[in-house]
Amino acid sequence: MTDILSLPNWTVLSTEESENLIINAEYNIQPNTCLKCGSPSFYKHGPKSVTYRDSPVRGLPVVINAILKRYRCKDCGGTFIQPVTDIHPEMRMTVRCVRYIQSQCLKDTFTRIAENIGCDEKSIRSIAHEYINFLTTNYKPVLPEMVGIDETKIDGEMRFIITDIEKRKPIDMLVNREKPTISDYLWKHRDDPVEVVAMDMWTGYKSVVNAVYPNAVIVVDKFHVVRMANKAMDDIRVSLSKERVKAIGRDWMRRKSLLRMRYKKLDEKGKYNVDMWLENEPDIAIAHGLKELFYLIYEMPTRQEAEELLDEWLAIVPPEMNKSKKDFKPLVTIFKEWRNEILNYFDYRVTNGYTEALNGVAKVINRQGRGYNFETLRARLLFNKHHKPPYPHLRIDPDEEMTGKEFNDLLESLIRCECCLRLLTPFDYSVICITCTERFPHLKPDRYPPLPIEDSTPYSE
């Protein structure tokens, strides 16, 4: 019989397949002494059937029905069962089954793992928590030179996230974003080589970073800044639309996406529509022009040129568009307190985009698990390899030949499902994974031609 069990010193007697794969087996090694008193004098005292769970085989939960021998000691009179190897001492499971659960508990839900194993969810949760405690206890992160910090709201609580924005990987998640919590954490890492910290414009972060790392450079994420320019233009459009008749206001709402996009990225039809609109609405044309000019600041090659263009931009903002929260006043005001930190971007060219993306990953993880506790959420975020290629983005040499397998490995390292953020495999062949495509038939992802994994021919051929 084929050794489907694949465990040393075990012999498979028979197999049965139904909802579970039942493997009847016996252990071949006999004890030398009594397990209670150590006496070598004992005799067989009948068989005993013990059930163990094993890792899934062919998609079925596995039950090992072990036929073990029972013994009675001639000296102490005690009975004991034949000792076996490869079985976890505290669980009715094989060691590899426990390792399987440990590997899956950071990727899949506890309920689904329990279904795959065929055991109670509490057992999965117990093993997962013990494993997570082990990982957490032995995790000793060191803050790198370039750090990104941000917060995300999960189940009504603000969680603080810190990342390595150069290697693009998570470093840690804190239970809240209160200043004492962040200060205590950073103070423990005060000797780490932190040189650059990317963040949003929250004064709490700024004060803590300046206190712990006085020589570190703070860089305000450019997304938060340019977003304010777009919002200011949009608020002006909304306020002006209220002064128009409803039909015109609705037409403006339908076309608002054209104004939000960069003018240079519009197609010819889009540019024509925007030009016609702005020609008839001079106030919106001014707001749109201010937005486009502000975006140009971030295209300047040097800090000096960016600062000069910024000063010109601040000087031309009309007073009537710089007097409330519904225009450019918030954007103009931030440069009084954050000017240097915003302009530091042009010296280091780093953003907090990876940290922002990781916030979304954390929310997806929490949604999948229907409310993990903080320790589990943190472990799934930190220890499940939610990283991307090092900054800047990985570039491919067009002259270098790549085999089919190498190309698939590259795709696997770069692409995640746009629906559930799961890391795509070469078997998905799309921007949406097979699972999500089956669950949501209305999704129609763009597909690319599959490659055989073991293909050794150059991809260029």
Automatic annotation (TrEMBL):
Q: Name one Pfam family in it.
A: DDE_Tnp_ISL3
- Give residue ranges for domain Transposase IS204/IS1001/IS1096/IS1165 DDE: 147-381
Query: Which residue intervals define the domain Transposase IS204/IS1001/IS1096/IS1165 zinc-finger in the entry?
Result: 31-76
Q: Record's InterPro entries?
A: Transpos_ISL3, Transposase_DDE, Transposase_Znf
Q: What is this protein called?
A: Transposase
Source taxonomy = Bacteria, Pseudomonadati, Pseudomonadota, Gammaproteobacteria, Moraxellales
